[in-house]
Amino acid sequence: MTDVDVKSKGDGGAGDEHSTLRTDAALFAGNRAWLRSGFDLLIKEEHQSRRMPMCYSYLTVGKDTGDRRCDITLDTPGICGRQAMLKLVKGQVFFTNLDVRTTCYVNGDESAFAQLRDGDVLSMGTATVTLIQLKEAVAFLEGYSDPHRQQHWTLAPGTNRVGRVGKRQNEVVLNDPTISREHCSIESQEGVFVMRVESGDEATWVNAEPVETLKVLHDEDLIQLGQQLLRFRTYQVQPQKRRELAPREATILFSDIWNYTQMAEDRPLEQVISQLNEMYRGLGKVIVDNQGTLMSYLGDAMMAFFDSDGPADMMHPARAVRAALNMVNKLNRLNREWEVVGKPCLTIGIGIATGEVMVGDVGLTAHREFAAMGDTTNVAARIEKLTRDFSAQVLVSGATARHLGDEFILRELGSTEIRGRRSPVELYHVVGVRQELE
Fold first, then answer.
1. 20 to 30 A Cα–Cα from 104, which one of 75, 123, 368, 421?
2. Structural domain tally of the chain?
3. Residue 120 is part of which domain span?
4. Domain holding 230: CATH number?
C-alpha cells in the first residue's frame, strides 16, 4: 500500500485539516498492465457522452449492479452486469460479448467476437462505444477516490474544464461537494498540458504542493482537487507506419466448418449468423489466449497467425497446436449446449503449417490490412481441406511436427500431394496432448 497525503486548503499551520488517503496502484488497476495503446473509446449514452483511453490490457463493460463494478459502466436498459470485454493484444483491440443473453453489434452487424479497427462502433442496448485511433499526444486523468475510483477522462486538445455539475459545461465532471463548479481547467497546446486554477474556494494540489494559478503537468503527477485524488497520465502516440512486407518464420492456422451447408440449409439467415458469431466468439478467444493473431474471417472459415518473439523462439508451432486442440474442445462444449436447445451441432477441421511467410500491410492506404502471404499460408489452407478426407480434425505439416517435441501424440499419415504445389507435403494427425491421453 502507498500513503498519499490528501490536504485541505490552508497554510499548514495549526488547525488545518490533514488526512492520509491510502491507495494501492496495483489494486486500482485490477493487477493489469498499464499500456500505451494509442486508442481512445468514445462512449455515448442517451443523455451523455464521454471519452476515455484504452489504457489497460483489458476493460470490462456493463451495468453497475452494486456487487461488481465494470471499468466502463453504462446506464442503458437491456444489458447485463458484465456484458462485454475489450482486450488489447499486440496493439490490436478485440471485443468479446461475455453474456449472449444480450446481442451486441459491430457497425450494425450482430457480433459476439471481433477485432475492432479505427472508427468501428460497438453497440450494446442504446449505448455505443467507438474506437478512435489517436495521432497525437495522449493525456488522461484516472480517478483514485470514490465515487470516481477506476474512472478515466481523456483530455482533448484545447481546453478541458474540470468541476462539479453546474451552469458551465465541464468535460471532467466530479461528483464531490469539496469540488467547485468551476474548479480548474487543463489546457493542451502542442503536447504540453497546463492546469489553470479557476476557483480559490477549494484546495488544489499537485504532488502535495499547493497550486494557486498555473501548473505544468507531467506524466504520473498526482492531483488533489478538494478531496478527490486524480493521476495525470500522458505519452506521445507513435505514428502508425506502414508495415512493409518482410520474411518471417511463423505458423499459420486455418479452420473451416465441415457441415456448414447442412447447418445453414433451410434455416433463417439470422439464426445461422447468430450461431456462427457464438462460435467465432469462443474460438477467437482461444486463439488470442494462445498469443495468436486473428487475420481474417472468410465466411465459415478463420485464419490465424502465430509468430516468434525472436530468432531463437520456435514455440509458435506448439502454441498454434494448443490453440487448435482447445478450439475443438471449445466447440464440443458449445455443441452440448446447442443440442439442448435444438440447434445443429458443428464440426471443424483445422490445418496448420510452419515456414517462412511474407508479413506486412497490403492494400491502399485507406484500406490496408495486415497479411501473411506465401507458400506456408497456401499449404495450411490446403491441409485444412484434407481434414475431411482423413477424418482428422487437426492436421499439421511435417515442418510444424518437427518443432512440437513430445508434448503431443502425433500419427504420421505420410506424404500427400496437394493442389497447386509440385512437392508433396508430410502430414501428421494431432491425436491430442500426451499427458492427457497416457
1. 368
2. 3
3. 39-133
4. 2.60.200.20
Say whether both 318 and 345 belong to one domain: yes
Q: Which of 247, 409, 427 is nearest to 352 (CA)?
A: 427
Answer yes or no: is 151 within a domain.
Answer: yes
The answer on 255 and 222 residing in a single domain is: no
How many CB atoms are closer than 10 A to CB 391? 9
Which stretches of 152-298 are assigned E, i.e. beta strand? Answer: 152-154, 158-163, 172-173, 184-189, 192-197, 204-206, 209-210, 214-217, 222-225, 228-236, 246-257, 293-298
Residue 401 in grid coordinates: 511436427
What is the spatial distance between Cα 129 and Cα 107, in angstroms, rounded to a whole number?
10
Question: What CATH number is associated with residue 313?
Answer: 3.30.70.1230
Same domain, 257 and 368: yes
Q: In terms of pTM, does the model score above 0.70?
A: no
- Residue 259 and residue 181 share a domain: no
How would you classify the pairing of strands 246-257 and 301-307?
antiparallel
Q: Residue with C-alpha cell 461488481?
A: 68
pLDDT tens sequence for the chain (438 residues) = 344 444 444 443 333 333 333 333 333 344 556 666 778 888 888 877 777 778 778 888 998 776 667 888 888 888 888 899 898 877 788 888 888 788 889 888 888 888 888 889 999 989 999 998 876 667 888 887 778 877 888 888 889 999 988 777 888 989 888 888 889 999 887 778 889 898 766 778 888 888 888 888 888 788 888 888 888 888 765 555 555 666 888 899 999 999 887 877 778 877 887 788 788 888 888 888 888 887 777 667 888 889 876 555 678 999 999 999 999 999 999 999 999 998 889 999 999 999 988 776 665 544 456 667 788 888 998 999 999 999 999 999 999 999 998 889 999 999 988 877 788 899 999 999 888 887
